[in-house]
Amino acid sequence: MGPAEFLVGSGIDVRPHPHIGLATVTYLFDGEIMHRDSLGSAVAIRPGELNLMSSGAGVVHSERTSPEQRALGPRLFGIQAWAALPAAHEEGAPTFAHYDAARLPRIAGEGKTVRVVMGQLYGHTSPAEFPHPSFYAEAVLAPGAVLPLDADYDERAIYIVSGEIDIAGESFGGARLLVFRPGDRISILATAQTRLILLGGEPMDGPRHIWWNFVSSSKDRIDAAKADWKAKRFAPMPGDADEFIPLPRRPQLDSTTVILGLVPRTQCAASFNNRNSSASVRSEGKAGSRHKAEDDSWNEESSHLLLGLLLRLLEPSARLLDDRVHRRCVGAAHGIDHALERRRDGSRGRVRRA
Q1: Tens-digit pLDDT profile for residues 216-254
Q2: In the 8-state DSSP scheme, what is residue 282?
Q3: Distance CA 254, CA 37 (A)
């Protein structure tokens, strides 16, 4: 989301829409979003805070800029991740929790600051509850700062929000997702003022299917959710019931948003998604080209999807993946280069770049 600065009177209006089988992890660097959901939650999220909504069997929510913020000419910059729920929690009751910045552990020193948003990292544990071993954190590094990322989890990645880093002698700039091999100790050197998102955890308990805003281990369950949303059987939205996003007739590729998920052996599963559509795509190897959906109804099954990075980018252009790694990664966001399966055999770690 962003970075963006809106004209006075403008803002975002993500109308009420449904989810099943996932948790939305919303974290901002700048600006403010008003969250409302069918549980009756109405909470503004601000920089350094966490909104954690678990959809369980079904929830509806909206994300808008408040009238007060619109009057100021608002700014917005942040990331929303989708975390797949374990199978035992897919049909649970929906929940919502908000965590102020003061409640999230903050570690500072030696030119780096880390805020542990979810899970456990560097000896600190977030109060946020999630039913699967995982971690999610923001790190801000001054030039010359070094941040280790030990092999405490099988699946680990970093998203470079801004700045530039060096890993094992290779430089990586902003808008890159780097996925690391299990077992390797990683040392991240900031060569400029840098902001990172650190994410990962243990492999999920089985395959997940993605269609539009629905995630499930069962295609039949997603079909049922589609029918429920079309028939207006989801719970109503208190305080925001006049509008809704209709069920798309057919998933279509949209290059403004992307889900990037981590899977075992650091393969990357990805699918394009936005508030109206979602589709698995075949890359033609060129940015800005048209793409044919592999299946009109279903996204690429992302085996053992653990944690997705949902980047709502405001610009329409996108750099798409090289065909050689299509089966591992089927989409990439604006600013991410053509994916190359790169392996480094240096002692300080191996990196796959996406």
Answers
A1: 999 999 999 999 999 999 999 999 999 999 999 865 433
A2: -
A3: 25
Reading phi first (left if > 0) and then psi (alpha if -120 to 50, else beta), residue 153 is in beta
Burial degree of 344 (CB within 10 A; 0-12, 13-18, 19+): middle
Q: What is the pLDDT of residues 166-223, one digit of tens each?
A: 999 999 999 999 999 999 999 999 999 999 999 999 999 999 999 999 999 999 999 9
Tokens 């492999």 found at: 203
Neighbours of 167 (CB within 10 A): 22
Secondary structure E strands in 204-324: 209-211, 214-216, 258-262, 268-273, 278-279, 307-310
CA neighbours within 13 Å on the CB side: how many for 112? 21
First and final CA of the chain: distance in angstroms? Answer: 19
The pLDDT confidence band at residue 159, using thresholds 50, 70 and 90, is very high
Measure the CA–CA gap between 225 and 217, rounded to whole angstroms: 13
